[in-house]
Amino acid sequence: MADVLLSVEGLTRRFDVSKPWLNRVIEREGKQFLTATEDVGFEIKRGETFALVGESGSGKSTIAKMIVGLLEPSAGVIKFDGQEMDFASGAAMRTLRRRFQMIFQDPFASLNPRWRVEDIIAEPIHTFGLLRGAEVSNEVGRLLDLVGLSAADGTKFPHEFSGGQRQRIAIARALSSKPEFIVCDEPTSALDVSVQAQILNLMRDLQDEFGLTYLLISHDLSVVRHMANRIGVLYLGRLVEVAESKRLFTDPQHPYTRMLLDAVPDLALSGRRRMPVTGEIPNPINPPSGCTFHPRCPKVMDICRREVPRITTTATGTAECHLLTTEDAT
Amino acid sequence: MKPPILSVRDLVVEFPTRRGTLRALDHVSFDIAEGEVLGMVGESGAGKSLTGAAIIGLLEPPGRVASGEIWLRGERIDNLPREKMRRIRGRRIGMVFQDPLTSLNPLYTVAEQLIETIRTHMDVSDKEARKRAVALLDRVGIPAAARRIDDYPHHFSGGMRQRVVIALALCAEPELVIADEPTTALDVSVQAQIIDVLKEICAERGASVMLITHDMGVIAETADRVAVLYAGRLAEIGPVRDVIQAAEHPYTAGLMGSIPTLTQTAERLTQIPGSMPRLNAIPQGCAFNPRCTKAFDRCFRDQPDLIPRADGRQVACWLYETAKSEVSNG
C-alpha cells in the first residue's frame, strides 16, 4: 500500500460572523459563528488523486485553503508527509510550502495582469531560491513547453491568452517549485467543455510524468469521476462519505451522495427514474440538529433529528449515516 | 403539419467596430415547433445568447440584425417598431435569464413585480392578478406562496429566486419561452429541480422553449431537438438522441467526446485541439477547419450550408455533401 502524503484529522474552521459590538449590545444578541467545516478527516496517498465534491457552501474551498496554509484551522491537525503543519512558525511553513502548490478556479483573477508570463512562472523559483541567472529563463521555457505553450509566449501578458491557455500558465507556475502535491480548486469550472478536456488530460499527463499527488476540488461529479481515485463528499462542512471512485458511483452509501448522483443530468439518455431532489442546502449559521441532512433526507428516522451520526467504515471508505449504524445493530 | 411557432431564417448579426465589421451570427436558420423544446448549445462566444437576444429584439448596440428574418407564428417580428416589439416581449415571448438576482428588481416585492407584469399584458383587476400570481408561485414550487409573495427577492435563496423568475416569464402565458442558461448559477441538486419545473410548466401550457445552455447534460434531459452553434454558425441541428449518440459534424462529435460522463470510464478524454476562433479571425471556408481532423481542400475554400440528412437532421459539413453533388452532376 502506498504511503500517506497528507492526512487531516478533526479539521474544523469557524468564522466569526457577528454583528459589530455596539449592535450586539443594543440588540441583545450574542456572537454568531459560521462553521464552515467540522471534524473533517481524510488521508491522501502519494500519487493518487483525492477529490472533494459538494455544493456551494459545503466547505470545499475552506478545506483547500487550510491545507495550503492560507487559512488557520480553528481545531484539528494537518500532517504533510508525517510532519504536522505549524501555523505559528513562519520558517517551518515556508519550507513546507515549496512542496505543495495550488491551482485556482478563475485563471483571469489568479494571474497578475501587470506581469509578464515569464515573471509569473518564475516567481516561485525566485521565492524559494531554486535557480538563478539564465537557468531561470531556461526553466520557464521548459515549463511553458511542458504545458503545451511555447517558450516565446513568456514575454506576453496574461490578457493575450484565452481562458484555457491561462489555466495552462497557472499550472506551469504551480509546477515551477517542483511540488509533490497540488491542490486544484475547481480548475476547470470556468472553462468550456472542449477546453476542460484539454486541461484535464494535461493534468493527468503531468501526474504520470512527475508522480504528483492531487487534491481535486469540484462540484462537477463527472469531472471528479474521470479524475479521482478516491472521493470525499461534503455536506454543510461535514464529510458525509469517503469511498473509492468506482464504488461511490455504483454503490453510494449515504442518501446525500445518492441524491447528488441522481441530480446530475444524464448524457446517456438511459431514461432512468431518478429520485426527486428536494430542498436546498440550509443556512450554515444555523444548521439543523442531529444529522444536518435530515430535512432533505428521504430515509429520515427519529434518531437523525437528535444525534449526529458516527463515522462508519464501509467497503472502501467511511460514511456518516444512522442508516448504516442501525443496520449493523440488527 | 402545423406551422412553427418561431422561424428564424438566415439571421445575420453584425457588430460594426473601428477595425471592421464583426459577424457574430452568420446565416443562422432554425424552426421551433409548437410545444417543442429546442436546445441551443455551444461554447462561450459561439453566439447562443446573441441568438436569443436577436429574437426578442434586445441586441446591445452597436450589434444589429444585418439581414435575415424572424417570424413568430407567421408574423415577421425582426423589423417591428420598438413599441410593438415591447408588447410582444413578455406577452408572447417570455424570458428566463441566468442570474436570478439581476432579473428581479431588488426594490420591489415579488408580488409587485408579478402583478405589474400580469396587468401590463392582460386586462385583469389587481385582485385577479394577485390571485393568478399566487397560483403561479404555488405551481413553480414556492412553499407558502400566499405569504411569501410579499417578500423581497433577497429573502429567497438562489433556487427559489429562479422559480420566481420562471413564474414571471410565464405569467402572461407566452407562446415561447427563451431560457438563457437558467441553471448555470445554481447547484446541481437545485438545477435538477428547476429544469423539471420549467419543463413541466411549459408542457402544461403548451409553450415552446428555446433553452440556451453550455451544458449538454441539461439538453439531453430536457430538449426535443438540439442546435449546435460554432463561431456564430449552426454546425448541426437535429433530434437530441441522434445528435448526442451519433453526432455527424466533427465538432459535435469532438464536443461529445470531451465531456466526462458518470457511466463511461475512458482513460483519456477526446480532445479537440486549439480553441474557437475569435470573431475577427474566422478562417475562410468552414470555421472549424483548423481544428478538424477530417478537413479536406474544399473545407478551406467554401463555407458549408446546412445539408439535410435523415430524420430531419441538418449538418453543415462538406463530408456529407458528396451524395448530393453527384446527383446534381448526373
Helical segment tally of chain B? Answer: 13
SSE succession of chain B: EEEHEEHEHHHHHEHEHEEHHHEEH
Main structural class of chain B: alpha/beta
Q: What topology, given as strand order, has the largest sheet of chain A?
A: 6-7-8-3-9-10-12-11
> Roughly how many Å apart are the termini of chain A?
33 Å
> What order do the helices and strands of chain A follow?
EHEEHEEHEHHHEHEHEEHHHEEH
Q: Could you name the CATH class of chain B?
A: Alpha Beta
Radius of gyration of chain A, whole Å: 22 Å
- CATH H-level superfamily title of chain A: P-loop containing nucleotide triphosphate hydrolases
- Total domain modules of chain B: 1
Low-confidence stretches of chain A: none
> Mind telling me the CATH class of chain A?
Alpha Beta
Biggest sheet architecture of chain A: 8 strands, mixed
What is the mean pLDDT of chain B?
Answer: 88
Note down, in words, how this protein is organized.
The complex is a heterodimer of chains A (330) and B (330). With 330 residues, chain A is of the alpha/beta class. Chain A has 12 helices and 12 strands. In chain A, strands 6-7-8-3-9-10-12-11 form an 8-stranded mixed β-sheet, sandwiched between helices. A 4-stranded antiparallel β-sheet of chain A has the order 2-1-4-5, covered by helices on one side. In chain A, strand 4 and strand 5 form a beta hairpin. Chain A is globular and about 70 Å long. The two termini of chain A are 33 Å apart. Residues 325-330 of chain B have low confidence and may be disordered. In chain B, helix 4 (110-121) crosses helix 5, helix 5 (126-139) packs across helix 7 (158-170) and helix 7 runs parallel beside helix 8 (188-205). In chain B, the strands form 2 sheets. In chain B, strands 6-7-8-3-9-10-12-11 form an 8-stranded mixed β-sheet, sandwiched between helices. Chain B has a 4-stranded antiparallel β-sheet with strand order 2-1-4-5, covered by helices on one side. Chain B is built from 13 helices and 12 strands. Chain B has a single domain (6-329), classed as Rossmann fold (3-Layer(aba) Sandwich), CATH 3.40.50. The radius of gyration of chain B is 21 Å and the shape is globular. Chain A binds chain B through residues 55-56, 162, 164-165, 192-198, 200-201, 204, 219, 221-223, 225-226, 249, 259-270, 274, 276-278, 280-281, and chain B through 43-44, 157-160, 187-193, 195-196, 214-218, 220-221, 240-241, 244-245, 254-263, 266, 268-273, 275-276.
